[in-house]
Amino acid sequence: MKTLDLSLLWPLFALQGLLAVIGLVSLARARSVRGPKWMWVIIILLGNLLGSLVYFTIGRKE
Amino acid sequence: MRSAWFFYRKEMLEMTRSYKLLWIPVVFIILGIMQPISAYYMPEILKMSGDVPPGMLELYKLPGAAETMAKSLGQYGMVGLLVLALSAMNSFAGEREGGTAELVLARPLTPLAAASAKWLAQLTLLALSLGLGAACAAYYTVRLIGGLSWSAVLEASALYGLWLLCVVSFTLLFSACLRAPAAAFLSLAAAAGLALLHTLLPRPLRWSPAALPQLSVEALMQQGATAYAWVFPVLSGIALIVLCFLGASLLFGRNKLPRF
To answer: Is B164 in contact with B239 (CB distance < 8 Å)?
Structure first.
């Protein structure tokens, strides 16, 4: 079993966290989004990369 | 010229405000480094997911460095393309639907200048995302899997980037005459159509810009079948981009409300 090299893995988790934070900040500041806001909070928090992606591409109104 | 520069700055400001300049590069980096990480840790991932027949794990062979890098770039051709098209679809359509198109056209700004500012803004976003993403993907591949030739990575990324830029230019063209969702859908469909045609008729369509992803893989594997095979795809890709760009500025100048 390989030892998990955390120095290479943590950036991945950090970036995913960053993406979720950007999503939540943009959600908090958005005047209106498609669908209720609490739904997007759940999707961003639980959906990992895909959740944030779906919020940014579909949820946001320009 | 000055007004085009101001308009470009306005476009970049909008991209910053809508967090596009932040989240799209982050997504590209994640997509890029996920490939080498999952290739390297595949046996552990399989073991954690449970029932693996004994002896299976020993059969797993680590893919080559060039192959992993090619797969990372392939991610940009799928998810990356979707993200870029969806973010570019509002370029002109958003101005029209938000009612700011008339304001833009009423200013001393030719449609050509407006279109070039918008196109340059999309190019900036693409270059930033692809550059950061490919650099991180290459770094992880070298650390986890094996050596890569940096010049090959640069060449492969540039070829792939040109293909992505072709599709983004499609999106801009359609965005100038259709509603935003239709523009994104149609440009992705056009890209898929070009790619399909190229896989069906690879030899007669050697010059097509859809050959660029394949050429990018060959550049990484350093087994280019023929030298200078990239010349015609690159030229036709640039011609396609110029046509889309001119068409977009022409259509935006007319600024008719679309029916779709």
So the answer is: no
